[in-house]
Amino acid sequence: MSKTWFITGTSRGFGREWAIAALERGDKVAASARNATSLDDLVATYGDAVLPIALDVTDRVAVGAAVTRAAEHFGRIDIAVNNAGYGHFGVVEEVTEDEVRAQLETNVFGALWVTQAVVPVMRSQGGGHILQVSSIGGIMAAPTLGIYSASKWALEGFSQSLAAEVADFGIKVTIIEPGAFATDWGGASATFSQPLPAYDDFRNGTVAALRKAMAASAPGDPAATRGPVLELVDSENPPLRVLFGNGVLARAVAEYESRLATWREWEPLSKAAHGDVTS
Questions:
Q1: Helices of type H across 94-245
Q2: Catalytic residue status for 159
Q3: Of 3, 28, 152, 172, which one is the catalytic site residue?
Q4: Which CATH class for the 4-247 domain?
Q5: Per the count of CB atoms within 10 A, which of 32, 59, 120, 122 is most buried?
Q6: How far apart are the first and last CA of the chain?
C-alpha cells in the first residue's frame, strides 16, 4: 500500500534521497524547498506522484498552507519529514543575535511549525509517522557548533514529549541522528561567524585536531540511507531514536558513559543539595 510523504528540504541531501526512495517504490511525495525549480527534475521523472512546493519553513503561515495543500492534493499525509536545516559554525562568544535567531528559526521553529501542522491531519486520519532529522550534535556538543547543537537538543526535547503526547492517536515519532555524511552540510549550506582573534590558538589546536579525527573516517553516503529510512517508515514499532552512520554509536556511548561517571562522582553533592526533608 503506497504512502504519502511531506518532506522539507528536498532540494538536496537526505531530503532529496528520501524523496527519490519513496517515489521509486510508488509512493507519493509533497516535496518542499525554498526554490521550487530545484524540484523540476523530480517532477520530470515521477510526474503527478510529486507535488512541488516552494516553502520557507520559518514562515509559519506558509507552512500551514503547504501542509493543507498537500493533504488536500493527495488526500492524506502518512509520513512527515523535517529535514530542512543547516549548520552554523562559531564559538559561543562569536555568534551574533541574528545568527542565533536564524539558526533556531530554521532548525527548531521550522520543524515545530511543520509538526504542529501535520499532527491534526494525522490525528484525523488515525495515524502517521513524523521523522525529525537531528544529528550526533543532538547528543553531544562540539566546539564551534554550540548553537547548532542547541538547535538539535531543542528539536530532540520537544520531539520526545511529542511522541508520548500523540501515541494514542496512532502517530509515531522517530528522531534520526546521523553522523558525518557526504552532504554539503559543512559547505554551501553552512554559515560562519566572524572569527575573534582570541580564539585563533584554540581553533588551530583543539578544533583542528577534532576535525582531523573526524576526517580520518570516510563520511557516509546519503544515498545509502534510502533503504534504512524506508525500513523505518514501514516498521510497526519504529524507535524513538535511531543513529545513522558508522562509528556514531561508539561516540554516543562514550558521551553517556562520561555523563554517568560524572553524575556518580558528584552524587553526594547532589543528595546534599536536596536537603534534609525528614525533620
A1: 97-104, 111-125, 146-166, 200-202, 208-215, 226-234
A2: no
A3: 152
A4: alpha beta
A5: 32
A6: 64
> Residue ranges per domain, the chain?
4-247
Tell me the C-alpha distance between 88 and 238, whole Å.
30
Handedness of CA 89, 91, 96, 102 (dihedral sign): positive
Instruction: Write the pLDDT tens digit of every residue in 6-52.
Output: 999 999 899 999 999 999 999 999 999 999 999 999 999 999 999 99
- Where are any strands of DSSP class E within the chain? 4-7, 28-33, 50-54, 79-82, 88-89, 128-133, 171-178, 191-192, 241-244
Active site residue 152: yes
Catalytic residue among 46, 148, 159, 172: 148
Residue 97 is placed in which grid cell?
543575535
- Catalytic residue at 161? no
List 134, 135, 151, 193, catalytic entry:
134
Cα angle value 31/33/36 (rounded, 5°)? 85
